[in-house]
Amino acid sequence: MEFDFVVSCNMRNPTHVFLFRGINLPFSPRKAFFKPSIPPLPTSQRRHHVSFSLSPVSENIQSSSVLDHTNGGAILMTEFEDTTFSGNASKLSENKERIVVQTREVRRGLVGFGRRYVDGKSLMIRYSELLKLCASGKDLWGGMAIHGQLVVTGLEPDTHLWISLLNLYAKCGTPECALRLFDEMPNRDVVSWTALISGFVAQGCGSEGAELFCEMRKGGVMPNKFTLPTVLKACSLCLELEMGKQVHGEVIKTGVDSDLFVGSALVDLYAKCGELESAERLFFSMPQKNAVSWNSLLNGYAQSGCGTQVLGLFSQMAESDIKFSAFTLSTFLKGCANSENLRGGQAVHSMAMKMDCDMDEFISCSLVDMYSKCGMADDALKLFTGIEHPDTVTWSAIITCLEQQGKTQEALELFSLMRQNGAKPNEYTLASLVSASIDYGDQLYGESLHAFIYKYGYESHNCVGNALVSMYMKCGDVQSGSRAFELMTDRDLVTWNALLSGYHDEDVCDAGPQIFSEVLAGGLIPNMYTFISILRSCSSLSDTSFGKQVHAHIVKNKMNENDFVGTALIDMYAKSNSLEDAEFVFHRLNRKDIFSWTVIIAACVRSDQAEKAVKYFKSMQRDGMKPNEFTFASCLSACSDIAFVETGQQVHSMAIKIGHSDDLFVAGALVDMYGKCGCIDEAVAVFDCQFMRDTILWNTIICGYSQHGQEMKALEAFQLMLTGNVVPDEVTFLGVLSACSRMGLVEEGQRLFKELGTTYRISPTIEHYACMVDILGRAGRFNEVIHFIEEEKMNSSSIIWETVLGACHLHGNLELGKLAAENLFQLVPSMESTYILLSNIYASRGRWDDVRDLRVLMSSQGIKKEPGCSWVEVEGRVHVFLSQDASHPRIQEIYSNLEETSKKLTASGYIPKIKHVLHDVTDNEKKENLMYHSERLALSFSLIGAKPQKTIRIFKNLRICGDCHEFMKHFSSLLSKKIIVRDVKQFHHFKDGTCSCGDYW
């Protein structure tokens, strides 16, 4: 009787048919998780059909042309020798000789079975021996051939032979086939169950192994000391701690808890599940310990990042008789990597060198990972270049390290090299590369990576999706970031944080609160990054009400003591004009770093609390905190607002000392500070020292020149800016148009206004239109003013009519002034300056009845005139004066000095211009009123100070009146003093009887 053993190999979908007891294997899997995994033959060695015939008792073996006749007519095909009998080449490289010997024995054993083994029992023993050889050599195809020969014999296998077959398929990496064979076994004892479970565990299928154990116990089969460590390994693989504890109970119940292998498996289970105390207690209670048990506990501590415990355990292991293996060293290196213990890792590196295993690729990869996670990119890269075949994990580690160390270009180059070497990146590699593309500032490269990720199916991985969302959001592409977010199926808090991080700009910030609400509705607990992002959205929205609700959630989640969240809260309250709340949060911070100090200083500047900002800056210095460039810029802005020139000079000195004076932010703030404090020469000196000049810095110096009456220099600076290929913006043209206005350059202003749109493609803002109205109005060309307003359709703009009213006040144009005021009364009825300017026009014409009527109207509207106020900085302190002030401690000296000075000026030809007194009183009363204006009191005080000032700088909240302007001119000529007065409109530099404004302000 002859049987055909057929191996049918299709080139694309190989199917392997087994015949055993008349049943075809494989058949439909019993469980959903089973998938065919019999390894296909290499393409070069596949045949469409190979067949041969065997006779169970005949000595004649009829073989096809593919049989190897050199070894006794073995039925195994010679073309399969290199692959069929080699198993896993990497694992068997060390045992090649042994496998070859076993293979030959298998071949010899299949010759003449009927002649040599008449006894069925002896035949089954021989089959079992051969199957055992194939199992130990991972020789699946050899075992399949034996299985086929066994079918030919027609023997009824005994239990031992069944288990040998089961063991073969389990150990050769095909547990599914083992399971199907197991289903056909008539008697299933603990040995067969253990063999089947171990097959699944060996393939990393922990859940399946644990399920099989449960099925075994339901069947009433008791485990032995080999089953228990196997199922404990299964629980470790799938982190089934509760089931592992139940198996631990079985261990105690069966009395094998002192067994070395069982104990090691228990230590491994508890360690991998994070129960390190239980693992340590079990480990030290073991009567015997081997390298496996030591490594299990060591690995558990390493995974948890417990660097101190890893180092202590490693030291104890070194004191024992246990010999270190490459796995032990790599485990310790993993612990050093996770805890960033560089010294410990370097010590192991030295040990590996002494043991001559530092060139081992396994150890080298672990060293690369350790140095990478410890931030030693150069050392990691040096080791990496010596690895001949780095695995994907090692590629990922070095790329991630380079990206985190800011070496973006090197990281991207390594990725290209990785692809050239044929290594396939994993999700962690790609996530790091996407992050690198953010730092690289190349969204196009990031989009290319996105295409690569999509092509290879990594888009669904959580870490990759999170990186993509974050990349698009940081690049400002909110739409693409939202699309990447929508495509993600597994969204965690990191995903939501990445999405929320893009919704803080003014254009999209209104979506921030909705996203935050969805986070809460989804049951996620916000963390630090969630709160920082939503607070940034609230800052852009200036929404204090929602910000306070977020603050409540912060307190509820016990994040109110987090300094980073606290800093974000300060910024939110500051930008919402709630300085008191910002200060409250600031003072409750546990640790105030440079960022929190900078935010509170900037908050004070934004809330017009410049003096408080300077006080905070000084407090920060007393706390030993070193300012950064943003702190300097904020403090200098405060000095600009209140003209603290001495404090500004001290800050400038500190910036030079620390090395921030060349920073563009600081340089721009310095030029602005000196300019606003009346020190235009110092501002120019700072500007000239800057090698790099951006548009903002040019704008600052141009506007500075314009405000200081150096309009020609402003226009020259504008030409130099264009020559340097720096592109002007809206602010630039405000500066040059203002310069044209003060110089009366009507045609030049008109030309620049036209070029604004035609040459530079800048859409004029309402401020630009106001500049043009001011240019025409200051020149007294009121007909053109009206024509311009009507042509540009700006009748509904308050800033335009305010500019017109200012020009009418300058030229005394009552009719147009009344028209401008009527428009302003309708547009902004509560604006104080409208009433004041119109009242001044009436007063200059002597129309006191109209002045009184206007003042009654102001009173009925609840509008009060802001009192004139001037201040001067003397010896580091600011002294403030009101008109007719009598509150200063040295007021008698001030009055006496002022009266004496006035007499000298009168003697030199100064005549008070009483027309500038806008009250219906006598001439003497008008002269007395002019005598005690606030700017004159400030001037007098600066003269009686302990240290005579070479240049006197006075600051005023309103426009300087015509008589005070004349007074300052005469004073500068009589006493040879330079006086700088900054009023609400511009600077006036008085020297030798002249003013920089040319009496045109």
From TrEMBL:
Annotated GO biological process: RNA modification
Iron among keywords: no
PPR repeats: 158-188, 189-223, 290-324, 391-425, 492-526, 593-627, 694-728
Signal peptide region: none
Ion transport listed as a keyword: no
Annotated ranges, domain DYW: 909-1001
Protein family per UniProt: Belongs to the PPR family. PCMP-H subfamily.
PANTHER family: OS07G0636900 PROTEIN, PENTATRICOPEPTIDE REPEAT-CONTAINING PROTEIN
Keywords attached to this entry: Repeat
The name this protein goes by in its record: DYW domain-containing protein
One term of GO molecular function: RNA binding
